[in-house]
Amino acid sequence: MKASFTRRGVRTRRATLALTVAIGVAGATVLTLALPSGEHRAPARARHPAPGASPADIPSPGARGLGDPLVPLDGNGGYTVRRYTLAFDWRAPGTPFPAAATVQATATQALSRFDLDFAGNSLHTVTVDGTPARAARDGDELVVTPARPIARGGRFTVRIAYTADPTQRRHRADAIQDYGWVPTADGTLLSLQPNGARMVFPADDHPSVRAPFTFRITTPPGLTAVANGRLVERVRGRDGRIRWTYDSEQPVAAQLVQLAIGKFSLVDSEGPRGLPVRDVVAQDLVTGTEDYRSLTPDHLAWLEQRLGPYPFRRYGVLVGDTDLPVALETQSLSVVPSADLLGDRVDAERNLVHELTHHWTGDSVAIRWWSDLWLSEGHARFYELLYSDTHGGIDMAGMMRAAYEQHDQWRHDDGAPAEPTEPTLFRQMRYDGSALVLYALREKVGEDTFDRIERSWVTTYRGRTAGTRDFVALASRVAGEDLAPFLTPWLYGAHTPAMPGHPDWQVDPVED
């Protein structure tokens, strides 16, 4: 995500027990139970295991979350998702519509029940392998108890029918601001970072977890639907409505899902080695944004020289007619605010290169925990600044010196680069402050070694998940020296270390 910054100067919830029975459109019945926050849930009854069975074969509840220290309940335990299939029957802006999510998964333990991250929306039916299942709401958790326990290693399919609410949004007091469904004059697009996917579909909602997606979106005539990946089929029904089917082609983290509906033009071009590039642009913005969008092949070529081949099968920029405040690296189709592409070229290219860089660092190399966000945003900011510096834009050294001066203040306010709190995740430390760590590393080891570290990072962990410890270890191997004593105070210390090669750089005093 690309963010711009300016320098800055419990709630209590009553929960009541509600019991409802909903009759779904498919004829199945699901019992939905809203639980008070924090209430203990008794384990589901399971069949007695066979004599001599391993404890791992005794059904038990999957973990409610993955245990990320910043957001312990994000993601889910006890299974891995093999594929999502989302079916959306879109009607009109701001209007609820029928939706269904099919989740194909494999149990990593014997399961008596399991969770999905799912917030809001009107739940209708839940089935597991075609049989009605019991479902309970507990905050952002949808707790599913199948009619029969699921054996460890067993494959199962969950289908959730619901009414999607395209007005759902949440707010953060950092660079994210509003996230979730993003309304446009004639449709919608998505901005789901960090954990807004649950407002759109039931998910295993953590950046370290990825799975392939199939999207089936039905729209009124005259509208276009787009999503991550490749358009597989476009079919007009007898009623004139159009069903668009997309395949993500590669696994996607829930926060990087994109689904946009509206009056769009599709503009095709070609990147390095024939890479398909397709921009999706609100019809009245095609001409005004063309000059900057047409630079994408050059941006791809520049980044490939530094980071190696682009890691996905296609790319494009999504430009909606909306007041979206930030850009976002939704996988293979980055969403960029129209205002960013209608103004200054330097600013426009910074945004475009930033989101494109994320496809190497953040999308392909996924972060392990949210505290590793500096690896994603810091790299994107670093290459954004480096590109601008080498193409007649901003002075990178000047920007880094300014960041150095404020670094102790950012550490005080927002935590060290690899030690954020949940509320300060997307503050300036994760952007300029984290790019400064990479700048310091380059000053320490030299440009040639730094470039080898970077290419090795995105190559070694391509399509995988990695964290801060992995980066420090890899950098040390490539450099041929233990870099932990150098990087640890930069990443975790209360005070900013000296900048190699710049003894004149000084840190400003901290103001409370």
How does this model look, in words?
By secondary structure, the protein is an alpha+beta fold. 23% of the residues lie in helices and 27% in strands. The chain contains 9 helices and 27 strands. It has helices spanning 286-293, 296-307, 345-357, 373-390, 396-414, 432-445, 447-460, 468-479, 484-492; strands at residues 18-23, 29-34, 60-61, 79-89, 97-107, 111-117, 122-128, 131-132, 134-138, 141-145, 155-164, 169-171, 178-183, 188-191, 210-211, 213-219, 224-227, 230-236, 242-247, 252-253, 259-262, 264-270, 276-282, 317-319, 334-335, 366-367, 465-466. The strands form 7 sheets. Strands 8-7-11-5-4-16-19-18 form an 8-stranded mixed β-sheet, with no helix packed on it. It has a 6-stranded mixed β-sheet with strand order 1-2-9-10-6-3, with no helix packed on it. A 4-stranded mixed β-sheet has the order 22-23-24-25, with helices on one face. A hairpin with a 5-residue loop joins strand 1 and strand 2 (29-34). Helix 7 (447-460) packs across helix 8 (468-479). It is globular and about 70 Å long. The chain starts with 17 loop residues before the first strand and ends in a 20-residue tail after the last helix. Residues 6-48 have low confidence and may be disordered.
